[in-house]
Amino acid sequence: MDILLQIEDIIEKNGSDFELSKLFKTYIKEYKNSLPQLFENSQGKDFLVKHTKKLDSVISLMYKVTLRRVFGNYLPMRGSIPIAIIALGSYGREQLCVHSDIDLLVAYEEVDGFNTQLIIEKLFYLALDAGLKLGHRVHETGDLFKASNEDVTIKTSLMESRLIAGSAFTWHSTQKELTKIRLFEQKEFILAKVKEAQIRRKKYPNSMQPNIKESVGGLRDTQLLTWVAHTIYGIGNLKDLTQKLFSEEQYKEYRVALELLYRIRSALHLIANKQEDRLILEHMPQVAKMLGFKTELKMLTKVLHAQWQISNFTQIFVKKMLNPYIADMSYVRKLRNNRLSRGIYLFDDRLCASYKLQTQGINDILNILIALPDKFYHFDAGFLNQLTKTKIPYPISNTTYILLKELLKKEHIYSFLKIFWDAGILHLLFSSFRKVLHLPQFDGYHHYPVDIHSIKAVQALENIKEPLIQQLHNELSIDEKLLVKIVVLIHDTGKGRKQDHCEVAAKLIMPFATKLQLSEELIERAVLLVKNHVLMSNIAFKENIHNEKTLYKFMSSIKDSKNLKLLYILTYADINGVSKTTYNSFNSKLLLDLYISALEISQNSDRITDASKRAIIEKRVKNSKEFQELPRVLKTKLLRVESNLFFFKHSILDLVKIAKKAKETSDYSYSIDGDNSLSIEIYRRVPLNVSYLLATLSHLNVASMEIFTLFDDLKYFKIEFIKNVDGDELTEVEELVKQAFDMSRIVQLKEISLSKKEIKIDTQHSLTHAEISINTKNQIGLLAYIMDMFEKLEINIVTAKIHSTKRKVRDSFLIEKQNNICHNIDKIYELLTQESK
Fold this sequence. Notes:
With 837 residues, the chain is of the alpha+beta class. Helices cover 55% and strands 11% of the residues. The strands form three sheets. An eight-stranded antiparallel β-sheet has the order 9-10-12-11-15-16-14-13, with helices on both faces. It has a four-stranded mixed β-sheet with strand order 3-2-1-4, with helices on both faces. A four-stranded mixed β-sheet has the order 5-6-7-8. The protein is elongated. The mean pLDDT is 89.
């Protein structure tokens, strides 16, 4: 729209102020609607400058219209009217974002004959009615100095000023006042801004949903640089300090990072259609699309790297500008009295380095850190500058590896790891971090990128709050403590690949541990711990930790009690590294319960071996075609069958067949095979009179018997006999099987000879089960007799393993610890042996 013609038309017709504000409002709305297209064609600082210039033209036009309305045809030259319209803050820097406030200063001088207050009032009414989001101040030029001393925020905004429209004479007077303001109490102003920045950086730390303006490495950090540079050097553009303060390459890297933040912030404002500086998950897909990134992950990685770049640059060069300006000779003398080496000092647990010091080699710096007393340290920007500039060859030398090993042996290394990250050399010293540098974790769980999470996990390891875990850590040898620290640091560095990050990290830790000259045993433990670093938390939080099968399966992966203790410590550090609140009393209790239960299980190495074997078989079963064809619920039920022996004794086809038959069984079902030797399979939900069945068939001599508890209260029996039957006798056997479901039937048992020494009762077999083993001579009716005694004692058999030869019987029964079994051992012995007395 041709706004100038329409303005002229309204003025010629003596139209109302309302008509003018409505016209401007429509014009501004059309311009705002065009912003997405403008952003697509011109992003970053260029977009902000164009947007700023457009607003300049709108405000200049509003001022021109205001003067026309006030003076009519007697309009004096605008330069002679003692008013200056001045842009402040981000608007003054030509960095105004789309929905940010337009900060204006209207400076004026009292001159007889000019009704300046009326002009200013009409201008603001027009701007506000037109929909401009103004933040404005009105001052007579002579009052500016006084106003600036009332609040550091006012002084800051006045320092970033730029003339938009008005009198050049008034602007000149304003500039004189601004120079006076800049030179007044410079030290106090700078220190106030630095303190303000320190508070802000603590309030808005590194995050995977960063605040582009306020966060560490955000736009506020860049503004701090500008404020300090302007106060000290009186410059308007930071680039003017190139080759004086920093190199062209350093400034270029900083500008590239800053340009990305400009693009991100503008995109956020356009997407949210309001002032939005937080790059939250909700906006990431659209922002990534607008900026041309293939994925949100790549975009956020770039953003986090940009914020690191700006933070590093800001810390180093703000301090470099301040050093000569705020030098305190008494402090300098104290530093000199605490010199560690030329240009490097330790004072109040803070390591400092002179900016004049020649760049030190990494081995020299590591030697200094190793020699320090073992405690937490702070580092000044000079030391950060040294680490940032130091050259680290790739691959790093064996000497450097040995020095890293000595450093990692220290009790407190979190502060060292953090300064390595701040300096951008963490991934150069620990190469496994190369692919996870600034890598976000969109899993709804982690609060930090991978690299920061890993460092915070080390911090948690060095500040254990749980007494038991601290005790376990204290009991470790020096080499074992080193091992834990390495594992905690490296455990997540396998992320960012398509493969399982646990497996990748296990491959990464092996060469690193080898370079550190760890023993083969420690390297083996390191690989196992990294490979299973999420296992303990997954089981504690997602599975029944009181289930014996779960515990044995867990320990089959962990191998031994030493690894269990190390994993417990690792898990604690890992969870605490997620955020300050993730580790709580609830998950602490779950992990402790799992640790105690698994520690007891770890004493039974045979069962752990069985659990390992079971895990291998389960993997084969899951991959089989026959298993895949089962319904999902039945798959789950089959894999939850507790007995390891059930899986050991049966092929995949048999397992699937048994599961299908069990699912189809309502009360009971059976099958009888008499081809070679008699074999009976029984599936039952209702009680089975086992002793009756075995007694009536004892003349056929039982060769073996299996009893397995399957699922849904269903038991599976398979009884094999030495002798065979056919014809009418086979029909008779079938009738006996049917009769065995009548619990009222009684049969006279054979006389059995069984002594106490032939019976072994292991009540410590596991937390939930005991084992009864019988090793005696083979006797007709022996098994029927044993089963009858078990029924009288109300013993529930989970698994039975029966093996008979002509002369010997070796039977074992896994039974549930119920009905006070463990306190009735003598009664079991007495009942099983009473017929032999």
